[in-house]
Amino acid sequence: MKTASAKNKGRELQKLVRDMYRNLGREFGLVDGDIESRGMGQPGVDIILSPFARSLVNHDIECKRHRRTSVGPLFKEHFEKYKDIESLKLLYHQDNYSDTLVTMRAEDFFSILKQAFSRED
Fold first, then answer.
1. How buried is 48 (Cβ within 10 angstroms: 0-12 exposed, 13-18 middle, 19+ buried)?
2. Is the distance from CB of 65 to CB of 93 less than 8 angstroms?
3. Confidence (pTM)
4. CATH number for the domain that contains residue 70
């Protein structure tokens, strides 16, 4: 696959994830400019959140689109890069024939679950 084609697939995934956050965020007062997709090849997280967006969803988001995704090493690299930042580290990934998936640490998932359970009281 040519580099341009690979980057285009990655860009499509970033835009998909960005749009999912935008669609959800509109219900809570976010505008499109609050959630942006970082240009390909630029350093930093793939989805850029404004301070207001970050106050609602404190996520560091990496997006990977590969023919075959090795989730473990990709997530570890992303987590290590942002480990000193207090945020939920998420890796959105997709291979050629799968749905878009999200990976996070199990302890983070159960923390979210605990918060959801406590709100149901």
1. middle
2. yes
3. 0.85
4. 3.40.1350
| Structural domain count, the chain | 1
Contact 73, 65 (CB under 8 A): no
What's the rounded Cα separation, in Å, for the pair 74 and 82? 13
> What does the pLDDT look like over 50-81, one tens digit per residue?
999 999 999 999 999 887 768 899 899 999 99
Domain that holds residue 18: 3-119
Would you put residue 85 in left (φ > 0), alpha (ψ -120 to 50) or beta? Answer: beta
Q: Looking up tokens 């199990």, which residue turns up?
A: 106
- Alpha helix stretches (DSSP H) within 1-121: 3-26, 51-56, 71-81, 106-119
Cβ 109 vs Cβ 91: under 8 Å: no
pLDDT for 77-99, tens place per residue? Answer: 999 999 999 999 999 999 877 89
